[in-house]
Design brief:
The chain contains 20 helices and 9 strands. The protein has about 475 residues and is an alpha/beta fold. The protein has 4 domains: about 100 residues, GMP Synthetase, Chain A, domain 3, CATH 3.30.300.180; about 170 residues, 3-Layer(aba) Sandwich (Rossmann fold); about 70 residues, Helicase, Ruva Protein, domain 3 (Orthogonal Bundle), CATH 1.10.8.60; about 90 residues, Chromosomal Replication Initiator Protein Dnaa, Chain: A, CATH 1.10.1750. The strands form 2 sheets. A 5-stranded parallel β-sheet has the order 6-7-8-5-9, with helices on both faces. Helix 10 links the parallel strand 7 and strand 8. The structure holds adenosine-5'-diphosphate and magnesium ion. Magnesium ion (MG) binds next to helix 7.
C-alpha cells in the first residue's frame, strides 16, 4: 500500500502551518487524516460535517493553493467526512465531498446521508451567512441577585473572584480564557459566574452574554438533532460574546455533545470570545471527557472555591440578612456559622428555616430556637463536626472565652480545655494531628498526641473529668 498521500499531506501541512496561527492549525488541521491519493486527487478525512464546512469556509484558498503546489495544476482535494449518524446503533460512516464544486453540489444526492427527512434534499445553510442572525436578542438568563456586590470575598474565593472580576472588565482579552471555577456543591460557583456575566453587561451593554446550565445545553443539542437543525444550534452559540456554562461535568460521557461543544469552544476562543465554565471537580479529575476538550479547559485558568472560614461564613450570613432587611442576634448568626461549615447553601437553608419558624410561631429568634432548628437541619444532612465547632463547644462548656484556646496561656483550666479540644478533634474530624495542633494554639503533632493520651488517662482515673468528657461529647453530637 502506498503511503504517498501521507508524504504529500505532510508537505501541505508544512506550508499551511506557516500561514495560519498555531492554535488554528492545531484545531483544524491536526485532526485531519490523509486517506488516499489517486490521479492527482488527494482525499482527506475530517471528523465531522461541521469540520468540513469550516475548512471550506475559512481555508479553501490556502488549501487549493497548497494542493496545486504539491500536485500540479490539476491537483484536487476531496473530503471524506465522518458522519455522525444520529441513531446510536449504526456506526459513523463517511461521505465524500469534492472541494471546489461544493456549492454546485449542494442539492445533489451526495449530501443526502445527513438528511434525516427522507426524500427531501436539504440545502445546507451556510453557517456564516445567515441574514439577520446577529439581530436575534439573546436573553442572558442571569439572576440579578447573584451579583459581585452580594458575593462576599474571603481567602476561600479570592483567586476565582479576582479572575472573574478581571474578565468582566476585559472579556476575552485576559489570560483567563476559559475560566474554569470548580468546587464541591454549595460553595458559590453558580453565584460567581452569574456575577461575572452581570458585570460584563454593566461594563459592556452591547455584548451578548449567555448563562446556560450544561444539562440544558445537552437537551437543546438533543432537540436540535431530532429537529435536524444542529447548524442553527451551533450558530446560536457561536454568536455569543461571553458564554457561561455551569456544571460542565454533565457532558462527561456524552461524546456527541462534547464534539459540538468542542467546535463552539474553538470558534469562540479563536474569535477572542470569553468562556466561563464551572465543574464539581478539577479538570484532571473529570472522567469521561475527551482529551482534546480537557486540554482546552487547561488553556486558561482553573480556580477553585474552598470552604469559607468562620469569618467569611459570618460575613455571608450578615450580608444576606442585611440585604433582606432582617435583624438577628449576633449569637445566633455565630452559632449558625459555627455549626454548618462545609456548604454555604445549607447554611443559608438553616437561616431560612429559623426565620420561617420564628415568623410562623411568632417566637423571637433566640439561640435556643436556632439550636433546635439547626439540630433538626443538620441531622438530616451528614455533618462533619469541625475543629472550630469543637473549640466553641468546649469553651462554652467551661465558660471560657474562645480566644484563650489559641493563646499562649499555661493556666491549668485553659490547658485542659485546649487538650479536650484536641482530643475531640482527633475523635470527630478527619484532620491530621499536625492540622489539629495548628488550629489549637499553634502546637505541633506531638503535643496533640500527648493531649489525647492525657485525656484518655484522666477519663479512666478521674470521675469528674469523665463526666466533663461525656457531657461535651453529647453536646457535640446534639
Ligand atoms: P454552587 O454553584 O457551588 O453549588 P451556589 O453558587 O449555588 O453554589 O451557592 C450556594 C449559595 O451560597 C447561594 O445562595 C449563594 O448566593 C451563596 N454563596 C456562595 N458563596 C457566597 C459568597 N462568597 N458570598 C455570598 N453568598 C455566597
Ligand atoms: Mg451551581
Amino acid at each position: 500500500m502506498t503511503k504517498k498521500q501521507i508524504e504529500v499531506w505532510d508537505r501541505c501541512l508544512k506550508v499551511i502551518r506557516d500561514n495560519i496561527p498555531y492554535q488554528s492549525y492545531k484545531t483544524w488541521f491536526e485532526p485531519i487524516v490523509p486517506v488516499k491519493l489517486e490521479e492527482n486527487v488527494l482525499t482527506i478525512q475530517v471528523p465531522s460535517q461541521f469540520f468540513y464546512e469550516w475548512l471550506e469556509e475559512h481555508y479553501i484558498n490556502l488549501l487549493k493553493k497548497t494542493i496545486k503546489k504539491e500536485l500540479g495544476i490539476h491537483g484536487r482535494l476531496e473530503y471524506s467526512v465522518i458522519m455522525d449518524s444520529s441513531s446510536s446503533e449504526s456506526r459513523p460512516y463517511s461521505v465524500n465531498y469534492p472541494t471546489t464544486e461544493r456549492r454546485a453540489t449542494r442539492n445533489k444526492p451526495v449530501i443526502m446521508p445527513i438528511d434525516l427527512n427522507k426524500g427531501k434534499t436539504r440545502d445546507i445553510p451556510n453557517p456564516f451567512i445567515i441574514p439577520g442572525l446577529k439581530k436575534i436578542k439573546v436573553e442572558s438568563q442571569l439572576v440579578d441577585s447573584y451579583s459581585f456586590d452580594n458575593f462576599v470575598e474571603g481567602d476561600c474565593n479570592r483567586l476565582a473572584r479576582s479572575a472573574g472580576w478581571a474578565i468582566s472588565e476585559n472579556p476575552g482579552k485576559t489570560a483567563f480564557n476559559p475560566l474554569l471555577v470548580y468546587s464541591n456543591v454549595g460553595l458559590g460557583k453558580t453565584h460567581l459566574v452569574h456575577a461575572i456575566g452581570l458585570q460584563v453587561k454593566n461594563n459592556y451593554p452591547e455584548k451578548t452574554v449567555l448563562y446556560v446550565k450544561t444539562n440544558e445545553f445537552v437537551n437543546q443539542y438533543i432537540d436540535s438533532v431530532r429537529n435536524n437543525n444542529q447548524n442553527d444550534f451551533i450558530h446560536f452559540y457561536q454568536m455569543i460574546d461571553v458564554l457561561i456554562m455551569d456544571d460542565i461535568q454533565f457532558i462527561a460521557g456524552k461524546e456527541k455533545t462534547q464534539d459540538i461543544f468542542f467546535h463552539i469552544f474553538n470558534h469562540l476562543h479563536q474569535n477572542n470570545k470569553q468562556l466561563v465554565l464551572t465543574s464539581d471537580k478539577p479538570p484532571v479529575e473529570l472522567k469521561g471527557m475527551e482529551p482534546r476538550l480537557l486540554s482546552r479547559f487547561k488553556w486558561g485558568l482553573a480556580a477553585d472555591l474552598q470552604v469559607p472560614d468562620l469569618e467569611t461564613r459570618i460575613a455571608i450570613l450578615k450580608n444576606k440578612l442585611y440585604k433582606d432587611g432582617i435583624e438577628m442576634p449576633y449569637e445566633v448568626i455565630e452559632y449558625l456559622a459555627y455549626s454548618i461549615t462545609t456548604n454555604i447553601r445549607e447554611m443559608e437553608g438553616a437561616l431560612i428555616s429559623i426565620l420561617a419558624q420564628s415568623t410562623l410561631n411568632k417566637k423571637a429568634i433566640t439561640l435556643e430556637l436556632a439550636k433546635q432548628m439547626i439540630d433538626k437541619f443538620v441531622k438530616n444532612t451528614t455533618r462533619e463536626i469541625s475543629i472550630d465547632f469543637i473549640q466553641k463547644v468546649v469553651c462554652d462548656y467551661f465558660g471560657l472565652p474562645l480566644e484563650t484556646i489559641n493563646s499562649k496561656t499555661r493556666k491549668r483550666e485553659i490547658v485542659q480545655a485546649r487538650q479536650l479540644a484536641m482530643f475531640f478533634s482527633k475523635k470527630h474530624t478527619k484532620s491530621s494531628l499536625a492540622t489539629i495542633g495548628l488550629h489549637c494554639g499553634n502546637k505541633d503533632h506531638a503535643t496533640v498526641l500527648h493531649a489525647c493520651r492525657t485525656v484518655n488517662n484522666l477519663v479512666e482515673t478521674d470521675k469528674r473529668f469523665r463526666v466533663y468528657v461525656e457531657e461535651i461529647d453529647k453536646k457535640l453530637k446534639l
